[in-house]
Design goal:
Layout lengths: L1 E4 L5 E7 L3 E6 L20 E6 L16 H15 L4 E6 L1 H12 L4 E7 L11 H8 L7 H8 L10 H11 L4 H13 L3 H4 L6 E6 L7 H10 L4 E5 L6 H4 L1 H22 L5
Parallel strand pairs: 3-4, 3-5, 5-6, 6-7, 7-8
Antiparallel strand pairs: 1-2, 2-4
């Protein structure tokens, strides 16, 4: 990974691989770029994958403030600027998909298409009681016991390799307690992006049929609000779609981009 200084005043640690269509992968709150470890090896090498640690986590800068949804979205745009990328495909998992929506609404010209994986349509309001109770007990620094308690409110519906789960916990230990709180507060304080604007980019929505974190109505709301979007529901899958179904996610993402890349170029006036 390398550290990339941004015009927003932070440096982000970024992992890059492949060549071709650029896909920026956005992890969720409480995660790092390691959340994509089961998916990135399965994606075609003909895709250029840009996988950052967002501000406050992993190897990226951890400022005292600046954890609003808008801040997260502006970091993505500043990263595109720093890497000389005019427009890209955005893949966001869970709240990373909320950030992707923010970018698509605020900077539509920078987004060629979206893949929203277990992503919310609306987080505005208060932190769920069970989650708030677990966070209130977090230590500084955060411990593995804290993370085990958090994992208890984010159940898996499909077996995931223990080594992968251990890696997720190890990476999450890089996140200061203050950032855990600031991040979730920024998400619930934000006006949902789709209340402030529309998304015209090609969009694929991947959803777990057994999601017990977000209601299924949010998937339907996303599909209804984004014209021409496609909703795919995975049976026997919970909220952590990316972790539970990496093979299927990778196949669906590759097919979606291959099917829409030409159309996205034409709409932006570029060569096909």
């Amino acid at each position: 990974m390398r550290r990339v200084p941004l015009s927003t005043g932070v440096d982000l640690a970024v992992h890059e691989s492949g060549r071709g269509e650029t896909v920026v992968l956005l992890h969720a709150w409480g995660e790092t770029h390691r959340s994509f470890d089961r998916v990135t090896p399965l994606l075609p090498r003909s895709l250029r994958l840009v996988v950052p640690d967002q501000r406050g986590v992993g190897g990226s800068a951890k400022p005292a403030g600046g954890y609003s949804l808008r801040d997260a979205g502006e970091d993505v745009v500043a990263l595109l600027d720093a890497l000389g990328i005019d427009a890209c495909w955005l893949l966001g998992t869970s709240s990373g998909g909320y950030v992707a929506q923010q970018v698509a609404v605020a900077h539509p010209g920078r987004v060629r298409g979206l893949v929203l994986v277990g992503a919310p349509s609306d987080l505005h309001g208060t932190v769920p009681e069970a989650l708030a109770r677990v966070l209130a007990a977090f230590h500084e620094p955060v411990t593995r016991d804290d993370l085990r308690a958090l994992n208890g409110v984010l159940p898996l519906h499909t077996p995931v390799p223990e080594g992968f789960l251990d890696d997720q916990d190890s990476s999450a230990l890089s996140i200061p307690r203050t950032v855990w709180f600031a991040g979730i507060e920024g998400l619930v304080a934000a006006v949902p992006p789709l209340r402030r604007g529309t998304i015209a980019a090609p969009t694929l929505i991947l959803w777990g049929a057994d999601d017990d974190v977000l209601p299924a109505s949010q998937a339907r709301e996303l599909a209804g609000a984004i014209d021409g979007s496609r909703l795919v529901v995975y049976e026997g899958t919970g909220h952590l779609v990316l972790w539970e179904r990496p093979e299927r996610v990778a196949a669906d993402v590759a097919a979606f981009i291959a099917a829409n890349a030409g159309d996205a170029r034409q709409e932006k006036g570029g060569p096909v």
